[in-house]
Amino acid sequence: MSGLFAGFYSILAWIGSIVDPFCGPVGVFRWFASGTLLACGDAGWGDEIAYGFVVTASLAIATLPVGLLIGFFVALGKQSEERTVRLASNIYTTIFRGLPELLTLFIVYYGLQILVQQLLASFGYEGPVEINAFFAGMIALGVVFSAYCSEVLLSAFKAIPHGQYEAGAALGLHRGRTMRLIILPQLVRIALPGLGNLWMALLKDTALVSVVGLPDILRQTGIAARVTKQAFEFFGMACVLFLLLAMVSSIVFSNLERWTKRAEMGR
Amino acid sequence: MSFVETMIPPQAPPPAPPKAYTLARFVGSVTLGIWLALGVGIFLTVVNGWDPAKFAKYGPSFLSGLGVTLMLVACSVVLGAILSLPIALGRMSKNKIWSWLAYAYVYFFRGTPLIAQLFLIYYGLGSFRPQLESVGLWWFFREAWNCALFTFTLNTAAYQAEILRGSIESVPRGQREGAAALGLPERVAFYKIILPQAMIVALRPYGNEIILMIKGSAIVAIVTVFDLMGETRRAFSRTFDYQMYVWAAILYLLMVELLRNVWAWLENRLTRHLKR
Questions:
Q1: Could you tell me which CATH number the domain at B70-224 has?
Q2: Is the pLDDT of residue A18 over 90?
Q3: Domain tally, chain A
Q4: Which residues in chain B have their CB less than 8 angstroms from residue A210's CB?
Q5: What pLDDT is recorded for position A27?
Q6: Which of A74, A91, A113, A239 should be substituted to probe chain B, the one whose Cβ sees the most B Cβ atoms within 10 Å?
Q7: Residues near A79 by beta carbon (within 8 Å), at least 6 away in sequence
Q8: What's the ipTM?
Q9: Residue A33: pLDDT band with limits 50, 70, 90
Q10: Which residues, at least 6 apart from A133, have a Cβ–Cβ distance to it below 8 Å?
Q11: Share of chain B above pLDDT 70, in %
């Protein structure tokens, strides 16, 4: 079984190396930057920066479902009939929208470390504990994202007329099925522009996780800048890569928006 | 044959049925309980770990950090507002070159992280030291505080230009035409008719931008400016006391909530003629 997985992963890695846009056979750095500081392999920093690009993109992609899920439930809580639920979800958004992202990250990173250390100490393990920077970043950014996301989803919920719920009830659908089959498709359509903005903010916030040691674009270019003493070129490169991510995601989002509005087109 | 001789006396309505104990109520109590426990826990750790010596040592530095943060945000927002005017005009200009240049500026500063821009200016301009020295600007870019102020001004100018453009374009065309029909010069029409209406639309985005700047200013701690975050990091690295982060969090939350409420009041006050 493990052999099967290993084979699967090696095939995946092989495909990744083929379509790698930076250092693959048709990569930008391989073709246009060989012999310069951005060359691939041991000669330059191309492959390190390409790795940072992958880490940044995967952190943002891994954070998205966490943030969306928490944000959805917080938005539900904000329009609950129960006062305590509304209060609890409002406290959540107030705190995590008011704190700087960097501070949230530090609180999560060091707080988790202390918490895990105390937990392990109660089991009799005394030793240094290091929290994974990727994991801490995922939690901190996910929490911040969900606080903003809940506001976007709340206003989208308010834009859906009450008759839609009643129609669901009239059709004999259970509450969960009404939500899934009737409300959610409309919700996505209304909330998508707002969620697109939040995604852009999330992409930019991932750069903060480099401060606690995650080898993302900014950290990799920072190391390269320190070693080669050509800071302007490498940090400029980092900015260009972030712009590239922003451009790609704006194309994806405009396509998604067109796709969710396909029922309205042609009129 | 019988009939009613007396009316039934008026009676109190039946008592309301007791509220069913729903799942939502349970979830609400649990989550509120978690928040309460967290609040009490933080309060207790602060009380238990209270050390007058630490407070006397780090209290003033926290206050000075707070001052640095507020100063940085205030300066960069005001300078950014001045810089945003030509950018917004360029964005709305009919001249292709100007509008394209302004668009590229805005796209760059809104599409890249603030921290990457800060590194680009603080570390990146260091490699142009001879050129900067020959121009006589090196004294400015040598200081981390100046670099942070410069970056933040450029960054917030891009955002504020978009706010300004959006709000000016949101003023209906009829207002401009009405001003022209009254024979007002274009300049007077802009300052007396378009801008006041645009500012009301822009008020809320401006408030959000200031809040974003307060939160974003925390990253200057990484380039050795001792703002609130920087003082917190220094105090934490010396004491390894987790309370420091709690204090910083409380201060940041206070600042943001205060500004939010002041802004809500301001907006209420300035738009009272629009209420029906």
A1: 1.10.3720.10
A2: no
A3: 1
A4: 115
A5: 67
A6: A239
A7: A86, A154, A157, A158
A8: 0.85
A9: low
A10: A109, A209, A212, A213, A214
A11: 100
